Input
Amino acid sequence: MVVLTLLGGELHAILIDTRADAGVWSLPGGFMHRGESAERAAYRHLEEVVGLGEHDVVLDQLRTYSEPGRQPHDSRVVSVGWVVLGAQLPQTAPSARTTGAQWIPVDVAFTMPLAFDHADILRDGVERARARLEYTNLATAFLPPEFTMSELRGVYEAVWGGHLEPANFHRKVLSVPGFVVETGHARHGRGRPAKLYRAGPTPTINPPLTRVSVREQASAR
Amino acid sequence: MVVLTLLGGELHAILIDTRADAGVWSLPGGFMHRGESAERAAYRHLEEVVGLGEHDVVLDQLRTYSEPGRQPHDSRVVSVGWVVLGAQLPQTAPSARTTGAQWIPVDVAFTMPLAFDHADILRDGVERARARLEYTNLATAFLPPEFTMSELRGVYEAVWGGHLEPANFHRKVLSVPGFVVETGHARHGRGRPAKLYRAGPTPTINPPLTRVSVREQASAR
DNA sequence: ATAATAGTGTCTTTCAGACAGTATTAC
DNA sequence: GTAATACTGTCTGAAAGACACTATTAT
Output
């Protein structure tokens, strides 16, 4: 599982320090039981290993890794990869219930030595999350039930990396019917109070939000 | 496996008549061997069951189905779903090497009684193919190595269902660098000869081609 | 010449991006 | 008042959609 959240405006993933092999980190996960779906097994390991409850997170199936030799010690292990998104939940921090699990900034995680093909899985998971933000309302999974427009924009900026124009973002989000819904509440801070929104009924965004990195790639003709 | 091709300008899928259960059809597939990846197993069953070689098709992993009870007779079968795309190849028609395999128009296939959760898998596979055409060059997998612009447009029209404006399609495809490459050859028919193209080096299309059905959904605000 | 198919020009509309400007609060 | 943050108006440019037009062949 590639478990992602925002901490301090930066995208973090959970890595586990495998004591058996010093200095090598792995993604959280575990075996399936008989009579249990892969999804249920993912929820179970999230609870057991990471201390996250079913209602704290959103799961998205990534893909299945089955190359022989991907885990040298076993003849062949087939793993179903998942992307797990949650709002930042300090009280369920991995250190509370396990020994070696930690939130690591993804930029740092990419440079660390990971077990087996976990670096591939991490890369696939982060890329999936980035892509999903373009055309789904999945960004709201990174936030508490009520959030401001700035906070939602902050999710996009953190996950995609880069700056989004507040005015255009605001207009785009509100132009998609059912993306977000006004709650009528407001959050008071230093300046003008911000309206609070919650996730709306529409799961897909069309036309999609355009990603900074993708835009640059497109214009580099 | 959801095996898709174009026949007579219409999208077809392979279904297999399961003799054990009269009138119930299933998707082609089979078990994995030890020491074999899911991808290799897919290629093997394509050869054994359907008579399609590795170079005739393009594989795209769909997702993994693992709900307990999805196959009532077994305690729990975990299946890795694949979308398989190929150019129409009469000489490798499924009937050549198997008894009950047939190309069925997908519209018809959706109305037929399918075994287990194969209707879900078929739906997921067709939807995946439709989505992939938007932002990848996968449409070329439905065509022989050299093809005309009309033929490429025909793939989009068949898979998406609906009409695309020839002029705009032509301009859009050529505006994406590396989507297609001119071969210098031409195909002569009834009117002006058509230039032949082959798939270019760019796997992704950005900005994507916009799908008719998605557009209508968006404009129905 | 005519029909048929391939391909181009161009106008309109839509929408993203830039950025100046206005609104509402805490202090 | 000032500073800070939230939000709006408006201009520009890029690209999609519509559709009239030109090009090149077989007959």
